[in-house]
Amino acid sequence: MATEGSALTPGEYIRHHLVHLTNKKQESIVDFSVINVDSVIVSSLLGALVCFVLWLAARKSTAGVPGRFQAAVEMLVEMVDSQAKAVIHNANSRKLVAPLALTVFVWIFMMNFMDMIPVDLLPSMWHVAGPAMGYPDYLRVVPTADLSTTLGLSVSVLLMCLFYNIKIKGLGGWTHELVTAPFGTSKNPIWALLLGVINFLMQMIEFVAKTVSHGMRLFGNMFAGELVFMLIALLGGFASLSLGGGLFFVGHVIAGTVWTLFHILVITLQAFIFMMLALIYLGQAHDAH
Q: How far apart are CA 257 and CA 259, in angstroms?
Protein backbone atom coordinates (compact mmCIF):
# COMPACT_ATOMS: atom_id res chain seq x y z
CA MET A 1 0.00 0.00 0.00
CA ALA A 2 1.06 3.62 -0.31
CA THR A 3 1.81 6.40 2.06
CA GLU A 4 0.73 10.00 1.69
CA GLY A 5 1.26 11.82 -1.56
CA SER A 6 3.42 14.94 -1.90
CA ALA A 7 2.50 18.57 -2.57
CA LEU A 8 3.08 18.00 -6.27
CA THR A 9 0.19 17.89 -8.71
CA PRO A 10 -0.99 14.36 -9.58
CA GLY A 11 0.76 14.46 -12.95
CA GLU A 12 4.02 15.77 -11.45
CA TYR A 13 3.82 13.21 -8.65
CA ILE A 14 3.52 10.27 -11.08
CA ARG A 15 6.17 11.64 -13.46
CA HIS A 16 8.57 12.08 -10.54
CA HIS A 17 8.08 8.48 -9.43
CA LEU A 18 8.66 7.18 -12.96
CA VAL A 19 12.14 8.69 -13.28
CA HIS A 20 15.11 6.41 -12.59
CA LEU A 21 18.25 7.24 -10.67
CA THR A 22 20.83 7.11 -13.47
CA ASN A 23 24.58 7.52 -13.78
CA LYS A 24 24.20 10.42 -16.23
CA LYS A 25 21.63 12.51 -18.04
CA GLN A 26 20.15 10.79 -21.06
CA GLU A 27 21.03 12.75 -24.19
CA SER A 28 18.97 10.85 -26.75
CA ILE A 29 16.07 8.40 -26.93
CA VAL A 30 18.49 5.49 -27.33
CA ASP A 31 21.56 6.00 -25.14
CA PHE A 32 23.28 2.78 -24.06
CA SER A 33 25.73 4.67 -21.84
CA VAL A 34 22.92 5.51 -19.40
CA ILE A 35 22.57 2.99 -16.57
CA ASN A 36 19.54 2.84 -14.29
CA VAL A 37 21.54 2.63 -11.10
CA ASP A 38 18.52 2.00 -8.86
CA SER A 39 17.46 -1.08 -10.86
CA VAL A 40 21.01 -2.46 -10.93
CA ILE A 41 21.55 -2.03 -7.18
CA VAL A 42 18.14 -3.37 -6.09
CA SER A 43 18.23 -6.37 -8.44
CA SER A 44 21.82 -7.19 -7.45
CA LEU A 45 21.02 -7.06 -3.73
CA LEU A 46 17.91 -9.20 -4.21
CA GLY A 47 19.86 -11.66 -6.37
CA ALA A 48 22.50 -12.02 -3.66
CA LEU A 49 19.74 -12.48 -1.06
CA VAL A 50 18.04 -15.19 -3.13
CA CYS A 51 21.31 -17.08 -3.65
CA PHE A 52 22.07 -16.85 0.07
CA VAL A 53 18.63 -18.11 1.11
CA LEU A 54 18.76 -21.03 -1.32
CA TRP A 55 22.30 -21.86 -0.22
CA LEU A 56 21.20 -21.71 3.41
CA ALA A 57 18.30 -24.07 2.68
CA ALA A 58 20.63 -26.56 0.99
CA ARG A 59 23.18 -26.30 3.80
CA LYS A 60 20.63 -26.90 6.57
CA SER A 61 18.68 -29.64 4.79
CA THR A 62 18.37 -32.91 6.69
CA ALA A 63 17.20 -36.40 5.82
CA GLY A 64 14.80 -36.46 8.75
CA VAL A 65 11.54 -34.63 9.26
CA PRO A 66 12.04 -31.22 7.60
CA GLY A 67 11.21 -27.94 9.26
CA ARG A 68 8.85 -25.42 7.72
CA PHE A 69 11.60 -23.54 5.90
CA GLN A 70 13.12 -26.71 4.43
CA ALA A 71 9.69 -28.08 3.51
CA ALA A 72 8.77 -24.86 1.68
CA VAL A 73 12.02 -24.85 -0.27
CA GLU A 74 11.69 -28.56 -1.10
CA MET A 75 8.17 -28.01 -2.44
CA LEU A 76 9.47 -25.18 -4.59
CA VAL A 77 12.39 -27.27 -5.85
CA GLU A 78 10.13 -30.22 -6.69
CA MET A 79 7.69 -27.93 -8.54
CA VAL A 80 10.43 -26.40 -10.70
CA ASP A 81 12.14 -29.76 -11.25
CA SER A 82 8.89 -31.39 -12.42
CA GLN A 83 8.29 -28.54 -14.86
CA ALA A 84 11.84 -28.84 -16.18
CA LYS A 85 11.48 -32.62 -16.66
CA ALA A 86 8.24 -32.12 -18.60
CA VAL A 87 9.85 -29.69 -21.05
CA ILE A 88 13.55 -30.60 -21.23
CA HIS A 89 14.17 -34.31 -21.73
CA ASN A 90 17.97 -34.09 -21.64
CA ALA A 91 19.07 -35.07 -18.12
CA ASN A 92 22.48 -33.44 -18.45
CA SER A 93 20.94 -30.12 -19.50
CA ARG A 94 18.52 -30.21 -16.56
CA LYS A 95 21.46 -30.26 -14.13
CA LEU A 96 22.06 -26.62 -15.08
CA VAL A 97 18.68 -25.49 -16.35
CA ALA A 98 16.54 -26.64 -13.39
CA PRO A 99 18.57 -24.85 -10.67
CA LEU A 100 18.79 -21.82 -12.93
CA ALA A 101 15.01 -21.81 -13.43
CA LEU A 102 14.51 -22.04 -9.66
CA THR A 103 16.84 -19.09 -9.10
CA VAL A 104 15.13 -17.06 -11.82
CA PHE A 105 11.67 -17.76 -10.38
CA VAL A 106 12.59 -16.73 -6.84
CA TRP A 107 14.67 -13.77 -8.03
CA ILE A 108 11.91 -12.36 -10.24
CA PHE A 109 9.38 -12.92 -7.46
CA MET A 110 11.53 -10.89 -5.06
CA MET A 111 11.99 -8.11 -7.62
CA ASN A 112 8.23 -8.09 -8.20
CA PHE A 113 7.63 -8.09 -4.45
CA MET A 114 9.31 -4.69 -4.19
CA ASP A 115 6.06 -3.37 -5.67
CA MET A 116 4.36 -4.30 -2.38
CA ILE A 117 6.45 -1.79 -0.43
CA PRO A 118 4.63 1.55 0.09
CA VAL A 119 5.19 3.72 -2.95
CA ASP A 120 6.66 6.68 -1.05
CA LEU A 121 8.56 4.82 1.67
CA LEU A 122 11.99 4.29 0.10
CA PRO A 123 11.81 7.34 -2.24
CA SER A 124 11.07 9.58 0.77
CA MET A 125 14.14 8.19 2.55
CA TRP A 126 16.20 8.81 -0.58
CA HIS A 127 14.74 12.33 -0.74
CA VAL A 128 16.69 13.06 2.43
CA ALA A 129 19.82 10.99 1.83
CA GLY A 130 20.28 11.28 -1.95
CA PRO A 131 20.54 15.06 -2.46
CA ALA A 132 22.66 15.32 0.70
CA MET A 133 25.24 13.08 -1.02
CA GLY A 134 24.94 14.98 -4.29
CA TYR A 135 22.68 12.51 -6.13
CA PRO A 136 19.40 13.35 -7.92
CA ASP A 137 16.16 13.02 -5.99
CA TYR A 138 14.85 10.06 -8.03
CA LEU A 139 14.45 6.43 -7.06
CA ARG A 140 12.49 3.48 -8.44
CA VAL A 141 12.66 0.27 -6.44
CA VAL A 142 10.84 -2.24 -8.69
CA PRO A 143 13.50 -3.58 -11.11
CA THR A 144 10.97 -5.54 -13.17
CA ALA A 145 9.06 -2.31 -13.89
CA ASP A 146 12.21 -1.25 -15.77
CA LEU A 147 12.26 -2.41 -19.40
CA SER A 148 16.06 -2.65 -19.42
CA THR A 149 15.90 -5.23 -16.61
CA THR A 150 13.25 -7.45 -18.17
CA LEU A 151 14.79 -7.30 -21.64
CA GLY A 152 18.16 -8.07 -20.09
CA LEU A 153 16.65 -11.20 -18.57
CA SER A 154 14.98 -12.23 -21.82
CA VAL A 155 18.18 -11.65 -23.82
CA SER A 156 20.01 -13.89 -21.33
CA VAL A 157 17.44 -16.61 -22.05
CA LEU A 158 18.01 -16.07 -25.77
CA LEU A 159 21.77 -16.50 -25.39
CA MET A 160 21.20 -19.75 -23.49
CA CYS A 161 18.87 -20.95 -26.27
CA LEU A 162 21.57 -20.23 -28.86
CA PHE A 163 24.11 -22.06 -26.72
CA TYR A 164 21.96 -25.18 -26.40
CA ASN A 165 21.00 -25.10 -30.07
CA ILE A 166 24.69 -25.38 -30.96
CA LYS A 167 25.55 -27.79 -28.13
CA ILE A 168 22.73 -30.26 -28.80
CA LYS A 169 22.48 -30.06 -32.59
CA GLY A 170 26.01 -29.02 -33.47
CA LEU A 171 26.88 -25.89 -35.39
CA GLY A 172 26.25 -27.60 -38.73
CA GLY A 173 22.96 -29.14 -37.61
CA TRP A 174 21.65 -25.88 -36.23
CA THR A 175 22.74 -23.97 -39.34
CA HIS A 176 20.93 -26.54 -41.49
CA GLU A 177 17.83 -26.11 -39.34
CA LEU A 178 17.93 -22.33 -39.77
CA VAL A 179 17.57 -22.64 -43.54
CA THR A 180 15.23 -25.64 -43.71
CA ALA A 181 12.62 -24.97 -41.00
CA PRO A 182 9.74 -24.34 -40.88
CA PHE A 183 8.93 -24.64 -44.61
CA GLY A 184 11.43 -27.35 -45.55
CA THR A 185 13.59 -27.26 -48.66
CA SER A 186 13.53 -28.34 -52.31
CA LYS A 187 15.70 -30.33 -54.69
CA ASN A 188 15.47 -27.49 -57.17
CA PRO A 189 18.47 -25.16 -56.48
CA ILE A 190 16.51 -21.96 -57.11
CA TRP A 191 13.60 -23.03 -54.89
CA ALA A 192 16.05 -24.34 -52.28
CA LEU A 193 17.78 -20.93 -52.17
CA LEU A 194 14.47 -19.06 -51.99
CA LEU A 195 13.10 -21.31 -49.24
CA GLY A 196 16.42 -21.07 -47.39
CA VAL A 197 16.21 -17.27 -47.29
CA ILE A 198 12.57 -17.34 -46.20
CA ASN A 199 13.25 -19.98 -43.53
CA PHE A 200 16.21 -18.01 -42.18
CA LEU A 201 14.19 -14.80 -41.99
CA MET A 202 11.34 -16.62 -40.24
CA GLN A 203 13.77 -18.09 -37.71
CA MET A 204 15.25 -14.66 -36.98
CA ILE A 205 11.79 -13.14 -36.60
CA GLU A 206 10.88 -15.96 -34.21
CA PHE A 207 13.96 -15.42 -32.04
CA VAL A 208 13.40 -11.66 -31.89
CA ALA A 209 9.65 -11.95 -31.26
CA LYS A 210 10.09 -14.48 -28.45
CA THR A 211 12.79 -12.39 -26.78
CA VAL A 212 10.93 -9.09 -26.99
CA SER A 213 7.57 -10.52 -25.91
CA HIS A 214 9.26 -12.44 -23.07
CA GLY A 215 10.66 -9.25 -21.57
CA MET A 216 7.76 -6.96 -22.47
CA ARG A 217 5.16 -9.23 -20.85
CA LEU A 218 6.83 -9.02 -17.44
CA PHE A 219 7.59 -5.31 -17.78
CA GLY A 220 4.06 -4.41 -18.88
CA ASN A 221 2.35 -6.16 -15.99
CA MET A 222 4.69 -4.80 -13.34
CA PHE A 223 4.69 -1.28 -14.77
CA ALA A 224 0.88 -1.27 -14.77
CA GLY A 225 0.82 -2.53 -11.19
CA GLU A 226 3.23 0.20 -10.14
CA LEU A 227 1.02 2.86 -11.76
CA VAL A 228 -2.05 1.57 -9.91
CA PHE A 229 -0.22 1.84 -6.58
CA MET A 230 0.74 5.43 -7.46
CA LEU A 231 -2.89 6.29 -8.23
CA ILE A 232 -3.95 4.76 -4.92
CA ALA A 233 -1.24 6.79 -3.17
CA LEU A 234 -2.77 9.94 -4.63
CA LEU A 235 -6.02 9.13 -2.80
CA GLY A 236 -4.06 9.22 0.45
CA GLY A 237 -2.52 12.53 -0.57
CA PHE A 238 -5.91 14.09 -1.36
CA ALA A 239 -7.22 12.78 1.98
CA SER A 240 -4.63 14.86 3.82
CA LEU A 241 -5.09 17.96 1.66
CA SER A 242 -8.88 18.27 1.42
CA LEU A 243 -11.43 19.16 4.08
CA GLY A 244 -13.63 16.24 3.12
CA GLY A 245 -10.71 13.87 2.94
CA GLY A 246 -12.39 11.16 4.98
CA LEU A 247 -13.91 9.52 1.92
CA PHE A 248 -10.60 9.75 0.07
CA PHE A 249 -8.84 8.08 3.01
CA VAL A 250 -11.41 5.28 3.19
CA GLY A 251 -11.07 4.77 -0.56
CA HIS A 252 -7.29 4.81 -0.19
CA VAL A 253 -7.36 2.07 2.47
CA ILE A 254 -9.92 -0.12 0.69
CA ALA A 255 -8.37 0.20 -2.77
CA GLY A 256 -4.86 -0.28 -1.41
CA THR A 257 -5.81 -3.39 0.54
CA VAL A 258 -7.74 -5.00 -2.33
CA TRP A 259 -5.05 -4.24 -4.91
CA THR A 260 -2.28 -5.45 -2.60
CA LEU A 261 -4.01 -8.78 -2.00
CA PHE A 262 -4.68 -9.20 -5.73
CA HIS A 263 -1.16 -8.12 -6.62
CA ILE A 264 0.33 -10.94 -4.52
CA LEU A 265 -1.17 -13.31 -7.09
CA VAL A 266 0.04 -11.13 -9.98
CA ILE A 267 3.69 -11.00 -8.88
CA THR A 268 3.77 -14.75 -8.26
CA LEU A 269 2.08 -15.55 -11.56
CA GLN A 270 4.40 -13.27 -13.53
CA ALA A 271 7.49 -14.89 -12.01
CA PHE A 272 6.09 -18.34 -12.82
CA ILE A 273 5.18 -17.37 -16.40
CA PHE A 274 8.65 -15.95 -17.07
CA MET A 275 10.26 -19.10 -15.69
CA MET A 276 7.98 -21.41 -17.69
CA LEU A 277 8.56 -19.51 -20.94
CA ALA A 278 12.31 -19.71 -20.33
CA LEU A 279 12.01 -23.49 -19.86
CA ILE A 280 9.84 -23.82 -22.97
CA TYR A 281 12.26 -21.83 -25.12
CA LEU A 282 15.19 -23.86 -23.82
CA GLY A 283 13.23 -27.04 -24.47
CA GLN A 284 12.63 -25.92 -28.05
CA ALA A 285 16.39 -25.44 -28.42
CA HIS A 286 16.78 -29.16 -27.64
CA ASP A 287 14.17 -30.29 -30.17
CA ALA A 288 14.78 -30.64 -33.88
CA HIS A 289 12.23 -29.26 -36.33
A: 6
Decide: residue 52, CB within 10 A, 0-12 exposed, 13-18 middle, 19+ buried.
exposed
**pLDDT, the chain, mean:** 90
The count of residues in the chain is 289
Q: Which residues have a catalytic role annotated?
A: 213, 217, 221
User: Half-sphere exposure of residue 111, counting CA atoms within 13 Å on the CB side?
Assistant: 34
Enumerate the H helices of 133-287 as residue ranges. 147-180, 189-241, 245-286
Evaluate if pTM is beyond 0.85: yes
Comparing CA positions, the residue from 229, 18, 231 lying closest to residue 117 is: 229
Task: Tell me the per-residue pLDDT of 93-119, one tens digit each, with 9 for 90 and over.
Answer: 999 999 999 999 999 999 999 999 999
Task: Considering only CA atoms, give the Rg of the chain.
Answer: 23
Nearest residue to 216 via CA among 282, 162, 139, 145: 145
